[in-house]
Amino acid sequence: MSKKHVNHIEPYSPQFGTMIPLGGAKFLRTCVLWQLVRFVAINIRMTILILKSHH
Amino acid sequence: MARVVIMGGGVSGHTAATFIKDMLGKKHEVVVVTPNSNWNWIPSNIWVGVGEMSAEEVVFPLAPVYKKAGIDYRQAKALGIHPEGKADSDTPYIVIEYTDEEKSGTTEELTYDYLINATGPKLNFGATPGLGEGSNLGEHTVSVCTADHADHASHELDSCIEKMRNGERQAFLIGTGHGMCTCQGAAFEYIFNIEHKLKSEGVRDMADITFITNESFLGDFGMGGLHFKMGGFATSSKVFAESLYAERGMDWIIGAHVNKVEAGKVTYESLDGTMDEQEFDFAMLIPPFAGVGLKAIAKDGSDITSKVFAPNGFMKVDANYNAGAYENWKASDWPRTLQNPDYGNVFAVGIAFAPPHLISKPMSSPNGTPINPTPPRTGMPSAMMGKAVALSILDMIKGKSTEPTHTACMSEMGAACVASAGKGLFTGTAAAMTVFPIVPDFEKYPGVGRDLNGTTGELGLAAHWVKHILHHLFIWKAKLKPGWTLIPE
Q: What do you get for the CA distance between the two ends of chain A, in Å?
């Protein structure tokens, strides 16, 4: 039996027409070390956005 | 001495009032007129709605904060604006009606030198039969629009969870309750938080969860959708949003105008003109927004409401209201100073200003029913408008200029949105999105209409931390605690 990557999605359903995250992407979403890096990145991004938006 | 009157104490009104008082000092008077006794950090209502926060954690009383700031606080609702004064006086004024227990029903005239309309929306539940009456929520569905609504929603959710534990399958329907709704983001956050809650309670397999929206595609968000730079592609928000629903096994209904709500069932019309029904055991449907119904009266007593306000009740400002068809729309149609074109001492911010047109492409069913999201103008843009208008009025009072000196234009500024997908210090996730500018500008940014370096999206725990920190940070700021002016809008 081949490895199961994602839960069954009904072919031709709307859900079948989009991207589905695999294990690596899901792991990184809650990997604390990686998310600490992303936390810094998100804050930098938002700070730049705020600075660009005030007139 | 100048008197600045702010109608409304929500995000934009509170921001404008507190900054202008802080900068003007004691020599000038700042008055806030708002019917509410509490301030509500609305973005956290979705956590109240799933029992992850109490209603008390998202509200605080306004009176002590305004007393500390030296702001004259009137717990009252504004009824009408008299921008030319009256027969025997040229001083403009508004008429207010008190809503506090002591003076309830008493009316008063309040003169002003500058007026900021930050009245926010009327939650127009009454627009959809069965969804509610006027601005009151009906009995068939729940809401997360106010902290009390969200608290009630949480109790209803608990009942459903109990039923699922007892083996009874439950159908959840979350989304928009009318074809002309905005604020899809709140419904988006709530459905993901419900799914997260059901998983953590161990009953996810007993739930059928469906999203119903007036967007023509998931991820429109009332902004005509957006593109993120992701993995070497400019990826559409449609793919991003659909992926989140598909991953969690949730269904969606797009292009839907809910035209009737009954016990356990909604009837809706689709963009292709078909009528259909969707059954539910638990439904949270966002109502459409309308202006709060202010009247405008001229010096001679004639009604000038249609001159000052658009037909939907929102106040006209320096926007181009004659842009015509979608093909002719431009980024420059959007207001910059938020000043009323007829009365230079009157401004409107946040939801209270009348947008020139939609941002999303107008659509209607073959039956002529308009089904399209209206422009979002809550949260960060709302606060930025409040501050920009405060700074303009400050310069006008101090004689530095006779015209507004600051701008907050939705086609020139960005917005950051952190949409929760579930709460938890190590298990929570949220979508952190930035968009620049909010209104696409295809002349300045050919291709997708936005700056791809400023338009980003990602899902993860870090974004949840950001959302949680913002909850505390913005309540700290709204309470005017030490360093509040340093916290950006």
A: 60
The answer to whether A52 faces chain B, any CB pair under 8 Å, is yes
Residue A33 touches partner B, C-beta closer than 8 Å: no
Q: Do B414 and A43 touch (CB under 8 A)?
A: no
- Could you report the per-residue pLDDT of B224-264, keeping only the tens digit for each? 999 998 888 999 999 999 999 999 999 999 999 999 999 99
Interface test with A, best of B382, B389, B461, B485 (most A CBs within 10 A): B461
Which tens digits make up the pLDDT trace of B258-283? 999 999 999 999 999 999 999 999 99
Residues of chain B contacting residue A27, judged by C-beta atoms under 8 Å apart? none
Residues 6+ apart with CB under 8 A from B93: B82, B85, B86, B109, B110, B111, B112
Is a pLDDT exceeding 60 seen at residue A1?
no
Cβ(B446)–Cβ(B466) below 8 Å: no
The pair of structure tokens assigned to B151 is 């608290």
CB pairs below 8 Å between A and B: how many? 94
Whether residue B274 contacts residue B255, with contact meaning beta carbons closer than 8 Å, is answered with no
Residues B324 and B303: their CA atoms lie apart, in Å, by: 27
Q: Do the Cβ atoms of B322 and B354 come closer than 8 Å? A: no
| ipTM for this prediction | 0.93
CA B51, CA B54: separation in Å to the nearest integer? 7
Question: What domains, with CATH codes, occur in chain B?
Answer: 3-123+290-367+374-397 (3.50.50.100)
Residues in A touching B436 (Cβ below 8 Å): 49, 52-53
Asked if A52 and B429 come within 8 Å (Cβ–Cβ), the reply is no
Picking from B18, B8, B2, B41, the residue whose alpha carbon sits closest to that of residue B390 is: B18
pLDDT tens for residues B22-57? 999 999 999 999 999 999 999 999 999 999 999 999
